[in-house]
Write a structure and sequence with these properties.
- By secondary structure, the chain is an alpha+beta fold.
- It folds into three domains: 61 residues, 2-Layer Sandwich (Alpha-Beta Plaits); 55 residues, no CATH class; 65 residues, Homeodomain-like (Arc Repressor Mutant, subunit A), CATH 1.10.10.
- Helix content is 60%, strand content 9%.
- The chain has a four-stranded antiparallel beta sheet, with helices on one face.
- Strand 2 and strand 3 form a beta hairpin.
- Helix 3 packs across helix 5, helix 3 packs across helix 7 and helix 7 crosses helix 9.
- The longest helix is centred in the last third of the chain and has 19 residues.
- The radius of gyration is 18 Å and the shape is globular.
- The protein starts with a strand and ends in an 11-residue tail after the last helix.
Length: 191
């Protein structure tokens, strides 16, 4: 089965996938699969379909990615988010961030890091920390895990390390954040 991939900016969760699948179905654009950040179309997209799809995606906060550079940045973001949220397999979890990205994208990490910083205005590492803290916020709000369990889940070296990064980024301790709750959480596409 031939697939024609199209990259989509701001897709960060399963609900995003369902939303894009719904748009494709309503617009009668045949697809093989929709993944976070990617649409695998059954046929090459026509100019008319691309315009319709782009407008419908924009209306719900997504954006088609046209350039190689933008596509690479989005791939970096998706991979960093998966790694930060510990949504990778055991082999990938053991790799440090730079080796993981280099392995997945077939570029030297220095190239990826330089490119990301120039486009995003922040380092890959900073983005990684932001994603980990957002996941920690989510887990704190659920209230089903202790802080040390969250630190272990997110592969922090210690609870103190998580607490330090959390406070540095949010200005709040994890325990105070838990009291304040959801008002301080950001949507993943806004991180």
């Amino acid at each position: 089965m031939t697939s024609h991939p199209v990259l989509v900016k701001n897709m960060v969760c399963h609900r995003c996938v369902l939303s894009v699948e719904d748009i494709l179905t309503k617009e009668a654009i045949p697809f093989n699969a929709v993944l976070i950040g990617e649409i695998h179309l059954a046929n090459p997209i026509t100019v008319e379909e691309k315009e319709r799809l782009s407008a419908k995606l924009k209306a719900v906060g997504f954006e088609l990615i046209d350039t190689h550079l933008t596509g690479l940045i989005e791939k970096i973001k998706l991979l960093v988010t998966r790694k930060a949220r510990n949504e990778v397999d055991k082999k990938e979890a053991k790799l440090n961030l730079s080796a993981y990205l280099s392995d997945k994208l077939n570029y030297e990490y220095t190239h990826l890091s330089s490119l990301f910083s120039s486009v995003e205005g922040r380092t890959i590492e900073k983005y990684f920390i932001e994603q980990r803290v957002e996941k920690a916020k989510e887990l704190l709000i659920y209230g089903q895990m202790t802080l040390s369990e969250i630190a272990f889940e997110l592969d922090y070296s210690s609870t103190a390390h998580l607490s330090t990064q959390f406070k540095k980024l949010t200005g709040l301790t994890p325990s105070y954040f838990k009291e304040v709750g959801i008002a301080k959480r950001k949507a993943l596409d806004k991180v």
